[in-house]
Amino acid sequence: MSFKSDIEIAQSTSMQNIIEVSRTAGIPESSVELYGNYKAKIDLNLLDELKDTPDGKLVLVTAITPTSAGEGKTTTTVGLADGMRRIGKKTMVALREPSLGPVFGVKGGAAGGGYAQVVPMEDINLHFTGDMHAVGAANNLLAAMIDNHIYQGNKLGINPTQITWHRCVDMNDRQLRYIVNGLNGRTNGVPREDSYDITVASEIMAILCLAMDLEDLKEKLSRIVIGYSYDNDPVTAGDLNAAGAMAALLKDALKPNLVQTLEHTPAFIHGGPFANIAHGCNSVVATRMALKLSDYVITEAGFGADLGAEKFFDIKCRFAGLVPDAVVVVATVRALKLHGGADKKELDVENLQALEKGLPNLLQHVENITDVFGLPAVVAINRFPADTEAELKLVEDSCRKLGVNVALSEVWGKGGEGGIELAEEVIRLCEAENNFTFCYDTESSIADKIKDICRKVYRAEGVEILSSARRQIRRLEKLGFGNLPVCMAKTQYSFSDDAKLLGSPRNFKVTVRDIKLSAGAGFIVALTGEIMTMPGLPKVPAAESIDVDKTGRISGLF
pTM here? Predict the structure, then answer.
């Protein structure tokens, strides 16, 4: 049996013209802005035209703590949407845009896999419609205006040692984490220490994804705190008169991108914040538009449910007034065995003992969804050929004890047909009791909000907030930012802040080493452990395997 890679499957499938896809979604042609034959942006005015249309059901796809064995969250999201359409439900997908950093680094592409993908896969994984570049340009325009203001006399009295705004680039480049710039004489700027973030960690990416419209985008951009004056007063992008020009760079990026799945289900792919260092969700405007256009919207949040899902609920849903109707928690038997201590080379061998030891990871995520956030959930087992009936039964029996059903997902090999069982359970859950609530009250202190997340979601024994972070908390609360939600920056590989603690660890403390203000986005970032906002490339980056032939056909993306 010959094996086709994801990119080979995508390239061998016929796509519909994007106008046909927009008709399937019910989008008038006057709202479609073409980017070639298979991509389009959708005019934001469509939201106003649909304001009296009732919303469809909102389904979040999340996952267990990720491992090197893979979980298949995006694949499940796409396959579930295709499965919903196969049983006659008007459905749309709402996903994030991939970052070039992971595409050329460890992860490769992020457009799903097998026969459950969004296409055109190469475009989506590479430059797409230019949104990432627009975010980077707006970010770096603000950085340039800060340093130019200082060079030109510094009327605002910006303290160069207290500039908190970083430059960014959409690439994994550890060399740029800490730099010195403005060297070689006064005409080349003012020398100071600086640093770079990856574009998807930029506050502007978060703002783009949380803005309700263009006016809201401008207002949020103006509130960005870029640093502090010599008098310790916050200085904003609005003070620098930068918000208008930044919004001009972002006006097209704010419009959702329309593409399709391999089975021609309409899909919005828009915005791309990481979930380990940002809030990990696609844009509010894309989600809201999809809810107006369809009966069911299948969306996802990055990494495990302790990161992306928690932020989806506590940040995105809180800001946008969204109430999810059901949650899908994706797991694989292979990944659970890895959490249980199995050798990665022996994951295809039945190992009930390792599986039983790894199951608490899945069960803790499920309990968080049902007990902490009060939402109905189903576990989707992304089935692999080597999974045995005994292993699948052990997972199913363990979940049933929590009152949660398990559905097998075979969408990688079967597309929407392999997602019908899951689709039927999701439809049932969307009519089930829903007691959605947040993990914390925003009126609590910053420290208490951090502790609520760490204790309720991570099950930490305690939280240690280092003295530098405590000083920053005191400053932010004094300045009136204490009532903002908290965005945890934490390793994606563990419930703890130690990537080596797999499974469902206990008796650990979370160490908060720094606190950052994202006043424009409207949240506070708590950095834990050794988390970095600028990743590095691995020893053998995926970029080494990517190529393009003389016809322009790309290979090596996965």
Answer: 0.95
